[in-house]
Amino acid sequence: MISDLLQTILDVTSHLKITTVIIGGLALPAYNVARTTLDIDICIKIESQKQLNLFIETLKEKEISTKQHPKINHDLFTVFGKQSEVEIWLKPCDAFQWDEQMTHKIQHFFKDVYVLAVEDYILTKLARADRSSIDTVDTLNILIANKDIFDWEYFQFRLKWVDLKNDFEEVIKAFELDYSENLRNLSRNILDKFENTGIPFILTKCIELLEYVIAFPVADIQKLTDGLGDKVLPDTFLLPKGTTAREFAGYIHKDLYDSFVCGIDARTSKKLSESYEVKDRDIIKIQSSK
């Protein structure tokens, strides 16, 4: 679910045929990572000052205003609705501009909402001038959740494009800091083993060798949201391989284990028996008798 203010802005950009993506913490569910945020950030690809002026004027007609005087060479500006605000970026990150490849790889999230390709989104995390520990954690979680679809060749090209290879390697090394001794040793061994062939295998190997899968519980299989309908892919579970659908329900809540009826695969809408073994990246609704 998105706010009325954001929906109005998206309607305007669609009408004016302005390429638009959501960025920042709001975009994380698109990459199968959940983190609560109140900030609303979007990025638009503006071709000229004339187009930017038309966009601002159209927003004013919708009672959305800005106190700034945005120029096409600015990084961002803020617009205000009746009860909230949105930061509108004119480039994906303060360190780099849009290019054709980035535009071409934009991905559909849901309805009329789009996001950057996962590789480009991580680039915005790495390149930002005020990168924090939260950005590092987000990057690691995104890599784990998207390990099977990540385009490493394209990402390596992007790292060279903005000279961030060393920054990325430092972020990857942080993977071994906050986990068990077993995982620290494992990740250290993998780093040693693959340092001459590239970083891409590290997180994948950690998950594989620990024999875990990632799964996402939802209440609404159409919108992929929680019971309140306001959080997309609200939780992420790291489960031992072989975990059954009923056991997965127990990880969510004991009552769901006790009252388990079946699981429902959000992608296919098929019912899953209690003995179904949860697969990596499954999105499942738990049907209970309560």
Q: What structural keywords apply?
A:
290 residues, Ubiquitin-like (UB roll), Beta-grasp_dom_sf, Beta Polymerase, domain 2, TGS domain-containing protein, 3 domains, NT_sf, TGS-like, 11 helices, five-stranded mixed sheet, globular, alpha+beta, four-stranded mixed sheet
CATH topology of the largest domain: Beta Polymerase, domain 2
Number of helices: 11
Major beta sheet summary: 5 strands, mixed
Major β-sheet strand ordering: 8-7-11-9-10
Residue windows where pLDDT falls under 50 for at least 5 positions: 193-200
- How does the overall form come out from the CA principal axes? globular
Radius of gyration, whole Å:
21 Å
CATH class of the largest domain: Alpha Beta
Number of domains: 3
Structure summary, number of beta strands: 11
Description:
- The protein is α+β, with helices and mostly antiparallel strands and 290 residues long.
- The chain folds into three domains: 4-117, Beta Polymerase, domain 2, CATH 3.30.460; 145-211; 213-288, Ubiquitin-like (UB roll), CATH 3.10.20.
- 38% of the residues lie in helices and 18% in strands.
- The strands form three sheets. The protein has a five-stranded mixed sheet. A four-stranded mixed sheet has the order 1-2-4-3, with helices on one face. Strands 5-6 form a two-stranded antiparallel ribbon.
- A hairpin with a 4-residue loop joins strand 3 and strand 4.
- Helix 8 packs across helix 9.
- Mean pLDDT is 84; it is low at 193-200.
- It holds the Pfam family TGS.
- This is TGS domain-containing protein.
